[in-house]
Amino acid sequence: MKDKPIVIFITLIAGLTACICCIVNNAGLLVTLAVVLVTLIIFLIIGMIVNAIIAKQRAIAEKREKDEKQRLEEEEKQQRLKEEEEARQQQLTEDE
After folding, report:
1. CA-to-CA separations, 34 to 25, 37, 61, 96, in angstroms, rounded
2. How many other C-beta atoms lie within 10 A of the C-beta of residue 68?
3. Within a 13 Å sphere around the CA of 74, how many CA atoms are in the beta-carbon half?
4. What is the pLDDT of residues 3-45, one digit of tens each?
5. Are 44 and 11 in contact (CB under 8 A)?
6. Dihedrals phi, psi of 2, to nearest 5 degrees
7. What Rg do the C-alpha atoms of the chain give, in angstroms?
8. Number of neighbours of residue 22 by Cβ within 10 angstroms
């Protein structure tokens, strides 16, 4: 998965912040461990949700880009057919 680092960074930053807060507040070891564990789990879940949202938006953008490219190719094809038809019509009028 291309977006895996997003989850990791969100979780690590949250864990670091929780550790710093516990150290500043002189929390005990067990309290610090509990706070950091809960924080890591919560932010892991948040990171996964953010990752899913980003992946979904990326898929939508890729599909939109693909559809636009296909539409442009179809328009070019229609334009070429129209030009060929006009050339045939002109050729027929010149032959007469």
Report:
1. 15, 5, 41, 93
2. 10
3. 6
4. 678 888 888 899 999 999 999 999 899 999 999 999 999 998 9
5. yes
6. -70, -30
7. 30
8. 19
- The residue behind tokens 């924080």 is 39
What tokens were used for 50? 């953010």
Q: What token pair was written down for 63?
A: 């599909």
Q: Would you say residue 88 has pLDDT above 80?
A: yes
- Look up the pTM and report it: 0.65
Q: Which residue has the tokens 């996964």?
A: 48
Token pair of 16 as six digits: 């670091």
- Which tokens hold the place of 76? 């070019």
The residue to which tokens 């953008």 are assigned: 61
Torsion sign across C-alpha atoms 66, 67, 69, 70? positive
For Cα atoms 18, 24, 28, give the angle at the middle one, nearest 5 degrees: 75
